[in-house]
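TL;DR need C-alpha cells for one chain.
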Amino acid sequence: MPTQTLPDVETRPQGTDSTGSDEPKMFHYVKKSKIAESAVLGNMVEALCGERFPVTRSPKPGSPVCPDCKKIYEGLPKGGDGGE
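>> reply
TL;DR here they are.
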C-alpha cells in the first residue's frame, strides 16, 4: 500500500483510544489546521495513520504517541525552510 504525503501537514498529537480513566492511551498526529475546528464543532479528523476521531484531548509532555503516526511524521520533509 503506497504512502501519500499530505500537502499542508503541520501536526500536533491528538488523543484517541480511551482508557477506563477517560484518559487517552495514545495520541495521534493530525493536521494542525483541523484541530480547533474539530474541538469546537466536533468534526472528525484523520490522523496520519488513517484513524478518524473527534479531537477531545490535548497531549501532555511525555504522552504516548501512535507508533504508526510517529513513523510517518518522522518520514515527512521538514517544513518552513522553503526547500522545494
